[in-house]
Amino acid sequence: MTAEDSRDTRPESWHAALHRLQREGLPHVLATQVTSAGSTPREPGARMVITADAVFDTLGGGTFEWQTIAAARRRLAGPDGKAEAGMSLEAFSLGGRSGQCCGGFVNVLLEVFPGSTATLALFGAGHVGRELVRLAAPLPWRVLWHDSRDDAFPAWSDDQPRLACRHAPDPAAAVAALPAGAHALVLTHDHTEDRALVDALLARGDMASLGLIGSRSKWASFRRRLHDAGHGEEALARVRCPIGTAAGGTGGDKTPYAIAIAAIAELLPRVESPARGDQRGLDPAKLRHSITDHST
Question: What InterPro entries does the annotation carry (predicted)?
């Protein structure tokens, strides 16, 4: 085995995992040991990153670490199944709460990063699709970019955060793999593929929104066929076609960039933003209590 092969097999460090998860827009918790008293496995500054199904690095192992992981995952699950951004301080008496013989005391700061606020499922890597992906880059959205053609994605897509490129020759399989609540935009190079995608997306019934590029006459033709395929009026009414004001047939700018701007502007009010309370971060009273009672 070469030195390079050996490096590839090492466990991912907390800072590498944090960078990757932030870049991919996935939910995670950064756990930081902030105080120590007495005998403890690690010193202040030790960190680990926790997701719903993985752990990166360590705070020293033992029951105390498992309790930290459990507390982090409760916050990732949230009261309604969704993580909420925020911080909390966990206090561990290693001889009491954690049952460890070293008997020290530790405070751990849990910082919850809920991941991207929305998922955009984009079908089509043509001119409009490329402009949409570029415009979405600064937004806190995760973009799942699909195309059925080989080598359809530009080289620059490798460097864009929160972007996943997926070769998708089977429309039904691509739609089945989407997370519930995604916002879908269909703009492939092929009308037959467009219709198959809209059919599959409507059949799922759990997309947050659904847009289709094209003219009103295109949608009239699609609508008849989708109705004949069994989709009801309520479902069909949820499809936006044309997408955006620039593609609305009103004489506006029809360049790919203008259509992409209009489509993004149309999506912005549809994407929910997390509510912010008057108080954010740690509760000052709880922080004072933890530090005062256990720092000595």
Answer: MoCofactor_Util/Proc (IPR052698), NAD(P)-bd_dom_sf (IPR036291), Xanthine_DH_XdhC (IPR014308), XdhC_CoxI (IPR003777), XdhC_Rossmann_dom (IPR027051)
